[in-house]
């Protein structure tokens, strides 16, 4: 202890807001709790998974974002069937504190916040240590609850470490020049001087203008669409696809037109009325994200509060979670610590229509509202009846932002079993949620589910085998689910599927269980498809032969990735020699088959957009050259270190090309001149050239964008 005194004296000289002493003190207490409560066999296992990335913990800025994300994903969730409850709370808290101690060294922006938060927990934990003097002490239910609450707050602090901007925030808060969008990764806050001061706001002309435009919208559904912007903060970028998913789930889009077109029309009307603004992006032909200015947003918040659509904002308080009179529940930062997070405290759960996660990091408590043990449900349906929540249509627990700045995790994936009670669910989103390794079979009970959004569920390893039970499924997004290496066979039985993102072509050869790309031809309504190819023996010819007969396909995106070879049983001796002989014969037969194999005659007839990423060959096949693209309107080639150009072409034939939008990115060897592009693509209106140095003499601006100037028709006097 004597050797520690100088360091303690030195730390006392540090600034008052330095978190190091508080972390050191609380960690010492937790270490003692660990020794007292945790069995010896468990003690050395808790740290083995905490730091496996191999970077310098004293300089977190050196760690790539993916590695930083892996750190938080690697924290294991102890199952109640595998470990005693005692082993769940203290080791978890101890491990998170050690991670926090390492991460906070260079992060000065967290000094005050960490010092204040951690300091509040020292006395309760110290009292717990002094109270329990017995060598056989056991945690009580109250102790477990206190430890779990503290752990959530500590882990919440730890999660903020990779969310900070690279440069130090300047004084001035959100309006300062140091802000980097997305609210700097912080929780959703409200402006205390605008919409909370109702009387002052109502006297403003902007409020009266917004209110009049709101009343003049042609349908109630459009009014709900406008008020949905109230759950986001002012000037927050909101993606159009996310809005479409939400509005489909609510059932407020017209049935007569495609949802994509309906959403564009609604947002266009809002823009014309100056209720929202498009987020400018010069690389986009048209906007796909929108935002709402502070005064308009405050007016929309006030209107939504008056009609009791959402219940989030209250004067003098941070946003909080409550069920509105119109049965909408928005999860905000800190909701997991509210009383309403308990299944018995949330009123009338059988009436809830929408659960939408605005900013909560630990949303799994929401599953418990819809369990078979829920008291209000038993009162509603009777003790002997099957528990069913027929009102719930939208269960959006995932991330609505398109950036990964907000880390979300489900601590107990077993709670997904409660999905079986949500029989009328239309939208289910787990986007960006970590720690979900598999979907519970309860998902297959959702016969009316239209949208299943699993985008960026990095731990997800497989889809349910009986996925065909989702008869109404129309949109399935498994983009960036890198652990999935095969598609279930019954995926091709989803007759209503219109959009499929993230399909994987791998070397898995179990034909009875794996869905191949060619089998998707049975999906006659499929309009949009994106795939990743992780199979070595799958050529460009194979790819387009597989999709040639897709009758309704309009948008096709393909990315060539790494080869995912599955493990094979090693053979030895004579068996190995025999297999080698058979393999050589098979390879020879395969080569002959490739020589006899036909090439695609054309692209899918209705294809309008083709996006090729990491193209593997040095030249485009003859049937993929510009003059043979049929009615294609958009062509993207992004990445292809060997690709050298469009190949030989005939000037007369090139006139058949209807491409209007061309993107050429990350093509170091791709050689073409502006004059040739004009001959190849006579209808070209938009060119995006980026990191393709041999695409030359193009009249692009400083970022590589060219747009055709609109022609002005001359008028005769």
Automatic annotation (TrEMBL):
Domain Disease resistance R13L4/SHOC-2-like LRR: 388-637
Transmembrane domains' residue ranges: none
Keywords per UniProt: Plant defense, Repeat
Polar residues biased stretches: 50-62
Biased composition (Basic and acidic residues): 1-34, 64-73
Region (Disordered): 1-88
Gene3D superfamilies: Ribonuclease Inhibitor (3.80.10.10), Winged helix-like DNA-binding domain superfamily/Winged helix DNA-binding domain (1.10.10.10)
Protein name: Disease resistance R13L4/SHOC-2-like LRR domain-containing protein
Organism: Brassica carinata (Ethiopian mustard)
